[in-house]
């Protein structure tokens, strides 16, 4: 396969990420663990230090100059993320600690308020544990029933089975936009439309989608959308929950404390308006401020350009890895993104990861927080997973192929 040209200056992009100059075990770092977290460009790192060095202050309640500057920067990030998702209203953007926190917020507020005995929640076989366990906990507490959409051998959802599951008992559908283990892109717009037809609400886990593809929550018409900034070249410990305003208004607060209140007496508390009703206490100010820079960085590169380049990386990796005897790629969906999971005959995934690490190549091994999926695939030890970002190169994929061949020579 010829390595195609791209509209992006990849060497310039690579120079934006200081960690790519690091050596690991005496080798130049090849970082293929982007589905777990992406690396951070200097502009994001600088935004963090700029906040702490020049206008660190608590927000919203202070009248002094530093507090006003910090508040403006914090809320400017919220507006940026509204535009990033094309949310209708800025108050529909809730800051969380990450994707997991956003899902738990919905489970513990929407779920407790609106779901009860016999109501059904639909998830899929492709889900990360963070989109399984909160619903199991809710089902145990409220007497709900959890149903699971099966997959085919290619790692795609069985949409025919999904349609059979839907009924007037279905109250919530919560599915991943892109599988972190297989890279499968789910037909979420169709999933949403069919759920809405029976009156169910829909949450989409966008943790793996937002850094690779355009996301328009109004076009999707999802009721909730969650993702983490650390997978979008931004800081760790920060996420976004998008929710339709009418639904968020009807949900009770998740945590109690400062900021999420209007007035407190010992007799009664009245809660704040959106989005602050769900943002109790001093928030993760510095990381929210730096999130603006991460979003701007992605916008400047252009999602279309990024997706085109990353898709070529995926095609090249799939072709090159497919030529290795004894290697089987797990997950062959017609629509997939930026992830190649694989197994090597006779070699444990952990051994693959360890030997590649000795060569400076970082991949992920194991079940990738998707144990039910791995059990369905008959892979209790999981897979080795290489996941790509815009700063990766075809030459790095060649190093991965060479590294895997070395694993085979050492282990077989």
CATH architecture of the largest domain: 3-Layer(aba) Sandwich
Q: Provide the β-strand percentage band.
A: 15-25%
CATH topology of the largest domain: Aspartate Aminotransferase, domain 2
How much helix, percentage-wise, in residues?
25-40%
Distance between the termini: 29 Å
What does this structure look like?
The structure is a single chain. With 412 residues, the chain is an alpha/beta fold. It folds into 2 domains: 10-40 and 302-411, Aspartate Aminotransferase, domain 1, CATH 3.90.1150.10; 46-300, 3-Layer(aba) Sandwich (Aspartate Aminotransferase, domain 2), CATH 3.40.640.10. It is built from 14 helices and 17 strands. The strands form 5 sheets. A 7-stranded mixed beta sheet has the order 4-10-9-8-7-5-6, sandwiched between helices. A hairpin with an 8-residue loop joins strand 13 (327-330) and strand 14 (339-344). Helix 2 runs antiparallel to helix 10 and helix 11 runs parallel beside helix 14 (394-411). The protein is globular. The mean pLDDT is 96.
